[in-house]
Amino acid sequence: MVTAAQAKAKYDQLVDRYEDIFFYVADVGRDLVAFADPAPGARLLDVGAGRGAVARAALAKGCAVTAIDASPLMMRRLAEEHPEISASEGDLYRTGFADGSFDLVTAGFVMQVLDDPLAALTEFRRVLAPGGTVALSLERQSVGRLGWFQDLSIEFFAPGGVSEPPPDQPGPLTHDRLDALLGEAGFEGVTRETVELPKPLSGPDALWDWMMPRGLAEMVPALPPERGEEFRRRFLEGARHMHEEGGIVLEFAATLHRAYYR
Question: For the Methyltransferase type domain, which residue ranges apply (predicted)?
């Protein structure tokens, strides 16, 4: 289990590279704001704002933007780069804003990492004015042509296999479950759409470099040296086969969700 302090430290370390590593956040941030369709001057709260993909897009639409995130360094950088955005460290479960403070609440790729997404949605509804909108993006989980990498990772890092979560622990948040949670939190008129952003990579080494900051940089050194070398060799072998069988393309997709507080 990653602690809150560890999560803050991780994202503080990624402040300069965040949108290079997570290549899709800027495009989906613009898509999310377009999907929400705020009026110029709308009071917008962006939670889990990160480096500001959604906040910047909202600012370009003429919104009055407030941004909060658990990473203080990311918020300092966002405030320095865009002083017209009110950016600060904050808790999305207890934002501290008065009831009805905002016309729109956004959360880009936040809901899937929360322990209690329903509590977060309830807080979003509280700070929305009647008639307000919530707009969320959710990463779609799909192995696609990277099934070989999943199998390799299980062999090296979870040799006993991946077990089902206990009955009292839900699995990954799905788009259907998120829609249902929006209804439970008191929102109406739930709609969603899908965006797809395939990313081609130049070859096996490029795939290795792309995967490293997404977990391999911590997991591979934890293996015995000979196992680490074997993992890298077999990874590159699988990536070469993928490259020869149609190229290495990351099949990224997300769902956008919108609902209203009447």
Answer: 45-135
